[in-house]
Amino acid sequence: MASVGKIARRTFLIGAAAIAGGVAVGYYYYRKPYPNPLEGDLAADEATFNPYVKIGADNTITIIAPRAEMGQGISTTLAAMVAEELDVDLGQVKVEHGPASYAYYNSAILEEGGPFAFFDESMTAEVVRAGMGVVGKFLALQGTGGSASTRDGFDKMRQAGAAAREMLIAAAAQKLGIAAADLETANGSILHKASGKSLTYGAVAATAATMAPPAEIRLKDKADWKLLGKPQKRIDMLAKVTGAPIFGIDVTLPDMLYGTVKMSPRFWAKPVKADFSNAEKMPGVIKIVPIDTNYGHGFGIIAENTWAAFKAAEAIDTEWADPEYPLDSAGISEVLKQALGAKGSVMRDDGDVDTAFADAPREKIVEADYAVPYLAHATMEPMNATARLKDGVLDIWCGNQAPTLVRQLCANAVGIEQDKVSVHTTFMGGGFGRRVEVDYALCAALMAKETAGRPVKVIWTREEDMRHDAYRPASVGKFQARLGNDGIPVAIDMTIASPSMIASTLRRLFPSISPLGPDKSIVDGAHNQPYTIPNYRVAGVAAPVSIPVGSWRSVGSSINGFFHEGFLDEIAVAGKTDPVELRKKLMAAYPAAVKVVEKVADMAKWGEALPAGKAKGIAFTLSFGSWVGEIVQVADTPSGIRIEKVWIAADVGTALDPDIIEAQLISAAIYGLSAAMGQEITFAGGMVEQSNFHDYDAMRIFQCPAFEVAILENFHKMGGVGEVGTPPAAPALANAIFALTGRRIRTLPLSKEVTFA
């Protein structure tokens, strides 16, 4: 297996044409499975059937759910996929994350990475999707993101459960001397009803594991599901409500040291001078070491306790070099605005936009400029990792979204082979894309080199965390529409400028790779929406600002949902068209979208008169394969604008756990509303100004609205869940504020222009 970096280099250089060719040339290698990582670490009485199932002689059944659990419930849903086909209840199984392994690659995370909309099912789009899936296996990235976990696991994990069940039946048939066709399974046992004989899975597991897996696997029909499609008890709930030590920050090991980091507050800048004298004299401080990685430069402080490390970090007197980007937010904003004048990459170009605007009467033109700020992930659990480097073997304990990246990059950092690194993935108190990054693990690994084999738990202060993120990029957009005589748009022209998330991520993870081609994330959520407009152009420009940016819940759709749906509301007002009716007309070619809009409008009683001082706003987005409509109701109160209620309708194609889906839609909406109301990352002197929740706050409980959610299953392909509620939240709120106040706010956060109760 080549390193991810080398394969990624080839992938970028080969291009889309070679992807399609690779489907044929590499078919044998694509079909060949990766080794089962469970085989080398089994208990004496334990057997494994594939990378997802272990069964002990005592009938202990362990299911591997190899995607990061950060509160979204994925460990429950993935385990239910296996348990469904294995014919066991979730209460009968243990669920583990499993080791870092290529066997747990996520191919679905790349399948929609091409320039095609989710609803585009042309031959070209499908060939590229298939090719990207193949590339996903070759890259073998074990990652949690892109709302891809259920889509990636839906076939793999059900097949794993079904294959194990067939092998267990075959072993039982052999032991009982009864034809396999006469046996059935239930609750972890194989039964022969005619004779009353039965065997537990554990009784035949060892024999079954030696048998060849079935050549063909028949999965249960949806009508026969017992677990999938129904709410399940969360397998992580008991540990969380009882305060069990399940998070990275809870890790405790014998003879453990503690540490923290003090990184350059100016990204990529090195220290000009540093005085450690006061810090080194402080009680409990053991060592201060340099930290130099692709994430930047700074110092690691190793101490006998976390408090001593924190105080020593404060005592280091350091002067940092100037940054390579503008010093303040005004300068950064100017670079973004200038980028709008550059030639962009056109990702959608229907009709002839230039001709459509050439003779447009002034009164038929709608124009607007939009902007959003940088945003931090602000996870409740700050970045942390525990590392131990002993006898040439590195162990790392941390919550992370990409175990194979942690393994590879930490191995490189300390100079050992990847097979000498074990990544122990814990639950995490929030991720939202932040823990796709590996800076926290790299810092811990480098500090473990300095502790003579003792483990070191490295915890970032909240301030360090807030000021050293890979932020949601700031972005600006210029929008223009021409209306027809009926008020319906006949032409739309959109240009969006933003720092490139892809280029920034590659700089941190694989700096030897130069990104080729346009960065789709800049226009994601704008170019691929299911609106039919005769002349429709969307272009993206990569702005040259090198502040680190990365995946933030819903990625580009979080930006362009606000841009696109805010501007569409402006079109509706200018054309004297109801916003719901306008969307239905423009999306008539996509019944799934229309049904979502109709459903959410019906739920919210859209069109009914509201009392004075109340108003509603609507937004719709298609992201990560799910069609989502949200309506926000606001009220004018003496203490400010109050968000009273939010209605959400989401078509996810196939709903595997309605309770988890509902929780995630609400969670994502709150995340988006929080950002829209008051969050922004600003810069002064080349440094982030915000430092903690007092100046980067989220929506509080008393501000949280009531929610009503409807889950639809009309579309024929499964969509994601974890991120899809975020993109419509900000525009629905902004559109509601316009309906209430007549004030059109085109720049976030909204609190710059209105006060929230």
From TrEMBL:
InterPro entries: Ald_Oxase/Xan_DH_a/b (IPR000674), AldOxase/xan_DH_MoCoBD1 (IPR008274), AldOxase/xan_DH_MoCoBD2 (IPR046867), AldOxase/xan_DH_Mopterin-bd_sf (IPR037165), N-heterocyclic_Hydroxylase (IPR052516), OxRdtase_Mopterin-bd_su_IorB (IPR012368). Residues 242-324 form the Aldehyde oxidase/xanthine dehydrogenase a/b hammerhead domain. Keywords: Membrane, Transmembrane, Transmembrane helix. The chain crosses the membrane at residues 12-30. Pfam families: MoCoBD_1 (PF02738), MoCoBD_2 (PF20256). It comes from the Bacteria. The keyword Membrane applies. The keyword Transmembrane applies. PANTHER family: ALDEHYDE DEHYDROGENASE (PTHR47495). This is Xanthine dehydrogenase family protein molybdopterin-binding subunit. It comes from Mesorhizobium onobrychidis.
